[in-house]
Specification:
single chain, 436 residues, alpha/beta, Rossmann fold, Dihydrodipicolinate Reductase, domain 2, Alpha-Beta Plaits, 3 domains, six-stranded parallel sheet, 13 helices, 36% helix
C-alpha cells in the first residue's frame, strides 16, 4: 500500500488521544484509508506519560515537522492563533496537507489559510474544530450538499451545557457548578472563553460559513454568555414548559443572516432540550431533508481524536488525485463564497422571557401590558409569584410571542421607568426550532 507519513504537532489532551488511537487501531485505519499511515514525527515541548513514545521520532521544534521533506500531512494540535498560524502557513509553504482541531485559528484566519492551500494544491481539514467527535463539518460539506440550509442551532460548548444542566436538574448556583466543572476538567482555570460564549462564537462562524457559503468572519456575530443567569430563571423556564440552553444560532433569510450565541429558552419537548451534561448537539434545517440532529461528545481526548484521524484518512485517500476532485475547504469552490449582510441583533425576531420585580398592587400589570401593547408585543403567558412574608415586591414573569428585539428593548426601557418596578428587567430569548 501507498505510504502516508504524518507529523503530529502537540501532545496535549487531543494530541495524545490521536497518538494512542492511531497506535491502537492502526490496522483498521490503514484498511479504511487504503494506505499505510504512520506517525513519522512528533513535535512537542515535553513528552506525555499517557503515550508510549519509545519508537517515536521526537523533536522539540514543531517547525522542524513542517519543514521535514518526508512528512505528507502536518497535524496542528498546539492551539492558539499565533504560533499555530505560523506553523500551518509554513507547512503549506512546504507542500504539506494540514489537519487541525483549532476552531479559533479557522474562525479568525481560515480565509487566508484556505486561499494559501488552494493556491498550492493542498488540503486543510478541520472536522475536530467544531463539536469534538460529531461529524458535523462532513455532514454540512458533503452529506447535506444537495440542500439549501435554512438554519442551524446547536449546543456547541460542553462546559456551558454542563453548568446549565446542573442548574436545571439540581437548582444549583452558577459559581458552584463552575467550580465543579473546573475540578472535573470540563472548564479551564480561566473559563472566560467558555462561559462568555467566545468558544461557541468561533464554532458558529465556521458552521455558518459552510452552511451559507459566506466568508469566515466574526464580524457582526452577537455573543452573550451565561454568567448572568440565575437559578430562578431556570426554574421559571421549566414552569413555563421550557429549558434554558446556551445555543449558537445561524439563520438565513431575505433580510440577511442571523449569527448569535446566547442563552435561549427552548420548548422542553424539542429535540435539543434533552441534551445534557457535557454533550453537544446541532440541529440543521434544510429544504430537502427537513430537520436533522447531530448528537455526541463535543470534547475529550479520544472523541476529538476520532475526528482528527478521520480527516487524516480523508486526506490520505485522495491526496494523489486531482485537486478538483477534493471537497473544498468550505464545501464549495472559492468563487461561490460571497459576503452576506449580517443582521443586527435588534432586527432579529424571537420570543422573549422577561422577569422583573414589581410592587404588589392593583394596576401594575395593566401598566406593563399597555407598554408592551404600545410596542406591538403580544403576550403569551404571565406568572406572578406569591408575595413572600413582609415583602412588598413580587417577581413577574412574562412570555411574549415573536417580536423584533428593538421593540422589546423599547418596552423594557419604559417598564424600568415605572415607579412600581424595582431594578432592571431581565430577559432571555426564546426559540421554538422544530418541536417534536
Amino acid at each position: 500500500m501507498r505510504e502516508v507519513k504524518v507529523g503530529l504537532c502537540g501532545l496535549g489532551t487531543v494530541g495524545s488521544g490521536v497518538f494512542n488511537v492511531v497506535s491502537r487501531n492502526l490496522a483498521a485505519i490503514n484498511a479504511r484509508s487504503n494506505c499505510q499511515i504512520s506517525i513519522a514525527q512528533v513535535g512537542c515541548r515535553r513528552d506525555n506519560a499517557a503515550c508510549d513514545l519509545s519508537a517515536a521520532h521526537i523533536t522539540r521544534d514543531i517547525f522542524e515537522v513542517a519543514k521535514n521533506p518526508d512528512i505528507d500531512i502536518v497535524v496542528e494540535l498546539i492551539g492558539g492563533t499565533t504560533v499555530a498560524y505560523d506553523l500551518v502557513m509554513l507547512a503549506l509553504e512546504n507542500g504539506k496537507h494540514v489537519v487541525t482541531a483549532n476552531k479559533a485559528l479557522i474562525a479568525e484566519h481560515g480565509g487566508t489559510i484556505f486561499a494559501q492551500a488552494e493556491a498550492r494544491g493542498l488540503m486543510v481539514c478541520y472536522e475536530a474544530a467544531v463539536a469534538g467527535g460529531i461529524p458535523i463539518i462532513k455532514a454540512l460539506r458533503e452529506g447535506l450538499s444537495a440542500n439549501r440550509i435554512n438554519w442551524l442551532a446547536g449546543i456547541i460548548n460542553g462546559t456551558t451545557n454542563f453548568i446549565l444542566s446542573e442548574m436545571d436538574t439540581k437548582g444549583r448556583e452558577f459559581a458552584d457548578v463552575l467550580s465543579e466543572a473546573q475540578a472535573k476538567g470540563y472548564a479551564e482555570a480561566d473559563p472566560t472563553f467558555d462561559v462568555e460564549g467566545i468558544d461557541a462564537s468561533h464554532k458558529l462562524a465556521i458552521l455558518a460559513s459552510i452552511a451559507f457559503a459566506m466568508p469566515l468572519s466574526l464580524d457582526g456575530l452577537f455573543t452573550d454568555g451565561i454568567t448572568q443567569l440565575e437559578p430562578q430563571d431556570v426554574a421559571y423556564a421549566r414552569e413555563l414548559g421550557y429549558v434554558i440552553k446556551h445555543l449558537g444560532i445561524a439563520r438565513q433569510s431575505d433580510a440577511g443572516v442571523e449569527l448569535r450565541v446566547h442563552p435561549t429558552l427552548v420548548p422542553e419537548r424539542s429535540l435539543i432540550a434533552g441534551v445534557n451534561d457535557v454533550a453537544n448537539a446541532i440541529m440543521v434545517n434544510a429544504d430537502a431533508v427537513g430537520t436533522t440532529l447531530f448528537y455526541g461528545p463535543g470534547a475529550g481526548a479520544e472523541p476529538t481524536a476520532s475526528a482528527v484521524i478521520a480527516d487524516i484518512v480523508d486526506v490520505a485517500r485522495v491526496m494523489d488525485s486531482y485537486p478538483d476532485s477534493w471537497v473544498p475547504g468550505l464545501g464549495c469552490n472559492s468563487s461561490a463564497i460571497q459576503p452576506r449582510t449580517i443582521m443586527d441583533i435588534e432586527d432579529v425576531e424571537t420570543g422573549f422571557y422577561i422577569r422583573f420585580s414589581a410592587l404588589d398592587k392593583p394596576g401594575v400589570l395593566s401598566d406593563v401590558t399597555k407598554i408592551m401593547g404600545d410596542a406591538g408585543i403580544s403576550i403569551e403567558a404571565i406568572i406572578q409569584r406569591e408575595q413572600p412574608a413582609g415583602e412588598r415586591y413580587v417577581n413577574v414573569i412574562i412570555l411574549t410571542n415573536v417580536t423584533k428585539e428593538k421593540f422589546l428593548n423599547e418596552a423594557v426601557t419604559h417598564i424600568e421607568q415605572l415607579e412600581t418596578v424595582r431594578g432592571e428587567v431581565s430577559f432571555i430569548r426564546v426559540e421554538y426550532l422544530d418541536q417534536v
